[in-house]
C-alpha cells in the first residue's frame, strides 16, 4: 500500500506539522506498537486532555476545529458530540467506532488500524473523556483479520500501561474498549444498523428520531464515529484549532487533511494524506501518475462505488465536499477510482448494482424491489436484449430511489452512479436495446434493401 506526502515523495517528507494522521508510519509498513508510538509523542494529547481540559472544553475544541465525519456523510463531529445528553445522572453511555469499511474501492481505515492501532485508541480515549462514555466498541469488518489482531494487541498494551481500564492516568475516569468483529454486511456502515448488529439483532437501520445520542446501544446514549474521524482528534487536542484549520488549501470549506487515493489502471495506485482542497488532477497526475501506458481515462468516481461518475474535464475540482458537489456528486470516502476506455459502462454498472442489491437489508420496498429490478434491466441491456423504454425505466428508478425516498441512504448511494453513467454514456446503454419486431419488418420492406 503506497503512502506519500504533500508533494513528490523524494522532495517532501511526512512530518507532524503537515501529516497528523500518517507521520508516525513506518517505512516498512509494520505496525507501530506502544513503545514506538509513545516515543513519537503518542498519548501526549490524551495526557493533555485528562490533565488540563474539562469534557466540555474538548467538545468545544473539536467543534471549533471544523472536523467533519470521514466516513462519507461529512457531518460536523463537534456538533454530533454536542447532541449527547448533558445530564450527569445518565452514567451509562457508549462510544462506537464504525470500522465496518465495506465501501467498494475504500481501504483507508484498514491502513490506520493495521499500522497505527494506538492512534485510533488514543482518539477514542480522548473522545470518551469528552463524551463521558464508560465503554467503547470498535465495530470491525469481519474480513479485516489483520486489523483485528493488531487492534486487540494494542488494546492489551494500553491496558497494561494504564491507558485503558480503571482510573486512567489517575483521573478517576474509567473506560473499557472492545474489538467486535461483524458478520459482513455493507448496511452495517449505517450507524443504527451497526447498533442493531452489535446488540445481536438483524442489521436493519432504525427509524430516526430518536437518534443514537438519545437512544442508542441497549437504549443508552451513544455516539458513533468513523475510524479516520477519531484518528484526527489527538492532533487537534495536541496542536490546536488554528493549526488544524491551516492545513487545508485555500477555498476549501473542510478543515485539516484527508486520506485520499486512486485505484484502477493508474501507474501508481495508492493512498495519501493530503490537505482538503487539493485538486483531483493533482491526486490523479502527481500522486497516482496518470493512466498506465496504453490506457485512457474515460471517467472516475471521487469516493467509492456510491458516488457518481465524473469526466476527465472534472479533474480540476477541489477535493472537499463542496468542491465535488459543484461538479455534480459527493466526495464520499475520498478514494477515487479511474475507469479506463476499455471498460463498458453497462457491464460496470451491472456489477455495481448487483453488489448494492445483494447488500440491501430488504426493509423498505423501493430498495428491496427497485435495486434487483435495475440489475435485471442492466443484465438484459448488457446482453443486447434490452427493450425500448428500459433506459427510461432505469432513470425512473434513479428518481424513485433517490434521497428522501427510502428508509436510509443505501439506495440513493446505489443509484447515484447509475444515473450519472446514463447521463454521460447513454449511447452505450442504447447500444444494448434490441430492435423490435416492427423495426425488423420495416427493415425487410425498405426500398433501399430491395434495390428500388
From TrEMBL:
Cross-referenced InterPro entries: NADH-UbQ_OxRdtase_51kDa_CS (IPR001949), NADH-UbQ_OxRdtase_suF (IPR011537), Nuo51_FMN-bd (IPR011538), Nuo51_FMN-bd_sf (IPR037225), Nuop51_4Fe4S-bd (IPR019575), Nuop51_4Fe4S-bd_sf (IPR037207)
A molecular function GO annotation: metal ion binding
Superkingdom of origin organism: Bacteria
The protein's name: NADH-quinone oxidoreductase subunit F
Top-level class of the enzyme under EC nomenclature: translocase
Organism: Pseudomonas frederiksbergensis
PROSITE patterns xrefs: COMPLEX1_51K_1, COMPLEX1_51K_2
Pfam families: Complex1_51K (PF01512), NADH_4Fe-4S (PF10589)
Biological function: NDH-1 shuttles electrons from NADH, via FMN and iron-sulfur (Fe-S) centers, to quinones in the respiratory chain.
E.C. designation(s): 7.1.1.-
Needed cofactors: FMN; [4Fe-4S] cluster
Amino acid at each position: 500500500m503506497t503512502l506519500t506526502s504533500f508533494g513528490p515523495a523524494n522532495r517532501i517528507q511526512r512530518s507532524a506539522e503537515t501529516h497528523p494522521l500518517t507521520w508516525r508510519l513506518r517505512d516498512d509498513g509494520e505496525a507501530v506498537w506502544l513503545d514506538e508510538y509513545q516515543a513519537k509523542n503518542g498519548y501526549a494529547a490524551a495526557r493533555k486532555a485528562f490533565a488540563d481540559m474539562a469534557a466540555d472544553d474538548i467538545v468545544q475544541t473539536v467543534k471549533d476545529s471544523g472536523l467533519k465525519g470521514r466516513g462519507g456523510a461529512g457531518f460536523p463531529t463537534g456538533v454530533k458530540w454536542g447532541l449527547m445528553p448533558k445530564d450527569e445522572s445518565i452514567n451509562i453511555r457508549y462510544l462506537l467506532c464504525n470500522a465496518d469499511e465495506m465501501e467498494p474501492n475504500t481501504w483507508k481505515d484498514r491502513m490506520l488500524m493495521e499500522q497505527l492501532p494506538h492512534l485510533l485508541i488514543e482518539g477514542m480515549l480522548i473522545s470518551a473523556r469528552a463524551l463521558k462514555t464508560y465503554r467503547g466498541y470498535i465495530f470491525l469488518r469481519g474480513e479485516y483479520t489483520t486489523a483485528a489482531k493488531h487492534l486487540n494487541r494494542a488494546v492489551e498494551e494500553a491496558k497494561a500501561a494504564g491507558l485503558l481500564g480503571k482510573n486512567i492516568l489517575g483521573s478517576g475516569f474509567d473506560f473499557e474498549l472492545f474489538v467486535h468483529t461483524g458478520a459482513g454486511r455493507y448496511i452495517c456502515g449505517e450507524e443504527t444498523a451497526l447498533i442493531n448488529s452489535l446488540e445481536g439483532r438483524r442489521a436493519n437501520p432504525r427509524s430516526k428520531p430518536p437518534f443514537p445520542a438519545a437512544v442508542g446501544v441497549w437504549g443508552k446514549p451513544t455516539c458513533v464515529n468513523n475510524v479516520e474521524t477519531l484518528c484526527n482528534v489527538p492532533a487537534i487536542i495536541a496542536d490546536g484549532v488554528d493549526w488544524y484549520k491551516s492545513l487545508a488549501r485555500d477555498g476549501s470549506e473542510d478543515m485539516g487533511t484527508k486520506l485520499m487515493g486512486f485505484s484502477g489502471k493508474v501507474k501508481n495506485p495508492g493512498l495519501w494524506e493530503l490537505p482538503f482542497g487539493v485538486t483531483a488532477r493533482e491526486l490523479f497526475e502527481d500522486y497516482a501518475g496518470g493512466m498506465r501506458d496504453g490506457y485512457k481515462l474515460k471517467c472516475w468516481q471521487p469516493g467509492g462505488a456510491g458516488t457518481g461518475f465524473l469526466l476527465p474535464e472534472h479533474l480540476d475540482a477541489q477535493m472537499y465536499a463542496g468542491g465535488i458537489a459543484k461538479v455534480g456528486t459527493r466526495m464520499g470516502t475520498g478514494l477515487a477510482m479511474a475507469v479506463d476506455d476499455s471498460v463498458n459502462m453497462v457491464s460496470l454498472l451491472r456489477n455495481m448494482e448487483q453488489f448494492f442489491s445483494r447488500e440491501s437489508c430488504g426493509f423498505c420496498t423501493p430498495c428491496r424491489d427497485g435495486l434487483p429490478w435495475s440489475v435485471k434491466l442492466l443484465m438484459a441491456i448488457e446482453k443486447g436484449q434490452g427493450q425500448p423504454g428500459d433506459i427510461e425505466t432505469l432513470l425512473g428508478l434513479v428518481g424513485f430511489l433517490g434521497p428522501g425516498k427510502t428508509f436510509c441512504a443505501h439506495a440513493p448511494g446505489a443509484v447515484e452512479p447509475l444515473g450519472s453513467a446514463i447521463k454521460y454514456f447513454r449511447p452505450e446503454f442504447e447500444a444494448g436495446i434490441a430492435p423490435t419486431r416492427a423495426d425488423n419488418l420495416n427493415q425487410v420492406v425498405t426500398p433501399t434493401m430491395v434495390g428500388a
